[in-house]
Amino acid sequence: MSKVTRRNFLKLSTGALFLSGMAGFTGCVESRRPGNLTTLIDCNLCDGCVDLDAPLCVAACRQRAIERIPDPVEPIPQPFPRGEIEDWSNRKDVLDRLTPYTHLYIQRVDIIDGDGGERTIYVPRRCMHCDNPPCATICPFTANHKHSNGAVVINSDMCFGGAKCRDVCPWEIPQRQSGIGIYLDLVPTLAGNGVMFKCDLCYDRVRDDRLPLCVEACHRFAMVFGQKRDIEMEAIRRAAQVGGYLYGMRENGGTGTIYLSPVSFDKVNDAIDSGPGRPHMAQVERHLEKASVLESSVLLSPVIGMGAGLAAAALVAVKGRGGDGGGD
Amino acid sequence: MELVEHWVLALSGLILLASGLLELPLGRRYYVTEIPSVTWAGDFFVVLYIHYAAAILFVAVAFFHLFYHGLLGHNGLIPRRGDLKAAIVVIKSLIGKAEEPPFHKYLPEQRIAYAGMAFIIAMLIFSGLVKTYDNLVNPQLPYILALTATWVHNVFSLFFFLTFLVHVTALAIRPNRPLIRGIFTGFVRLDYVHDRHKLWLNDIS
Ligand code: HEM
Ligand code: SF4
Ligand code: SF4
Ligand code: SF4
């Protein structure tokens, strides 16, 4: 347990006490390392840090990203045949959407209530760390992987920037920076186009039993981090307490991020101006749910082939013996 | 039987190759998705379903081949069976066929090519099965295992592709084109193979 710093521990526990009296919940700190880590993002608590230049969580996240991402080469190779590159290196200060440098941003959502009243909520958005993430399983280089602690991490040394992960992610979370990465060493104009970036759940920190930067940075304790089971229970408890709505427990077959909102997510989604880098909050079915039948069949196909082979060989053997001269 | 085997393997192999290439995000970039009626080529889920479906056939036939002929092989040296085996080798080994030198070196050449192709196919199947399992289970396999399976799969896909190219090139160039076309069209040509093969057998004996 013990690389949990006293500060982290206090933060989590005082936050919990301060905001919702979650007695006993501090236990999540100890159980953080293995298993399926999950974050509860409580939109009742997030105030969007509206008085600040940059929200605390966003600033902390972005600082880390900027430090880790090398500058692209000059000029960035033009990928054949389309010549489309995505270069955010001169726009690192963009905070109102996801970019290769902004793995977390605050979505401001203005909702008109049924009775004409208006209300604004702030939704910190980042990768959901899905339980069964298509972005990872379908990566042709296995550059993207869901680790045993639940974090879905893109290995930037392995990523070719083909953006397949973004295409298959229901929220189109990963963002591309062209002009960096392994593709430059091969045939940059023909294959690859940079490196994809997204939230990695502060993988390095979490591995050392520390909290993700954004969780730690939040002055409102709007994010709670811990084991899936504990966090889900806490989410359900809070939702029941305030009559709120949850998002992320079922989406895309279950995720490692749960949002709690005072308004229904249908309304939230309607109010979101979604687009590139600005994910929706609609209900999402897991695309590959149906694939499991096919996958099981693939795994069974050796047995099927073997059985058929044995049967056919037996048949031929019997036939061969019966009518030696006849044959097929 | 051998013909069915050959066809299922060849077709599913080609479908695997095509769908595998589309699993690399090439479709949209290289305008494949803009060819009318192939617009689905950019839909990785559809392409994956196709890859899976073809893999079922491919793997089943490969295992069928292994067991069926493996077992029959144990049945000794009846001339008819020898023919059968040689014909299967011809059919099975696309490369062998393409690289077929004048009659006499026919068999050894083919056996080498056959073994090479069998190895490539075995590696593709093994790594493919691991990848499929990795896609099915949650959480995923340990990273190093998933990474290895993927790279084995990718590298052997490349080998598969290259051997396929060699084969097609040979098809186009060599004067033994009628034979090959024959093999693709059916029994008559098989007889032709049998004939050539018998000559060769006669030489040997
Ligand atoms: C002729 C044989 C085959 C060729 C040329 C081929 C080629 C490819 C290629 C190029 C890829 C994309 C790169 C990657 O994801 O690693 C791929 C992916 C894959 N292949 Fe194959 N493959 C073949 C056979 C098989 C077989 C027999 C299986 C199953 C037993 C299989 C299962 C898979 C799986 C699961 C993926 C990953 C797809 C994804 O999750 O996106 N492949 N294949
Ligand atoms: S939200 Fe998207 S990028 Fe994140 S794990 Fe899920 S599929 Fe992958
Ligand atoms: S977990 Fe880390 S990488 Fe992810 S949003 Fe928070 S600070 Fe950024
Ligand atoms: S989550 Fe916390 S730090 Fe981030 S915007 Fe909301 S209140 Fe600010």
Describe the structure.
Chain A has helices at residues 6-20, 56-68, 134-137, 164-168, 203-207, 213-217, 228-242, 265-271, 291-322; strands at residues 37-42, 105-112, 118-125, 144-146, 152-154, 175-177, 195-197, 223-227, 245-247, 257-261. Chain A is α+β, with helices and mostly antiparallel strands. Chain A is globular. Chain B is an all-alpha fold. Chain B folds into two domains: 1-74; 86-205, Transmembrane di-heme cytochromes, Chain C (Fumarate Reductase Cytochrome B subunit, Up-down Bundle), CATH 1.20.950.20. Chain B is built from eight helices and no strands. Chain B has helices at 2-23, 44-73, 79-92, 94-98, 106-136, 143-173, 177-185, 187-204. In chain B, α5 packs antiparallel against α6. The longest helix of chain B has 31 residues, at 106-136. Chain B is globular, with a radius of gyration of 19 Å. Chain B starts with a helix and ends with a helix. Chains A and B meet through α4 and α9 of A and α2, α5 and α6 of B. The structure holds protoporphyrin IX containing FE (HEM) and iron/sulfur cluster (SF4) (3 copies).
Give the SSE map:
The complex is a heterodimer of chains A (328) and B (205).
Chain A: H1 6-20, E1 37-42, H2 56-68, E2 105-112, E3 118-125, H3 134-137, E4 144-146, E5 152-154, H4 164-168, E6 175-177, E7 195-197, H5 203-207, H6 213-217, E8 223-227, H7 228-242, E9 245-247, E10 257-261, H8 265-271, H9 291-322
Parallel strand pairs in A: 1-10
Antiparallel strand pairs in A: 1-8, 2-3, 4-5, 6-7, 9-10
Chain B: H1 2-23, H2 44-73, H3 79-92, H4 94-98, H5 106-136, H6 143-173, H7 177-185, H8 187-204
Bound molecules: protoporphyrin IX containing FE and iron/sulfur cluster (SF4) (3 copies).
One iron/sulfur cluster binds next to helix 2 and helix 6 of chain A.
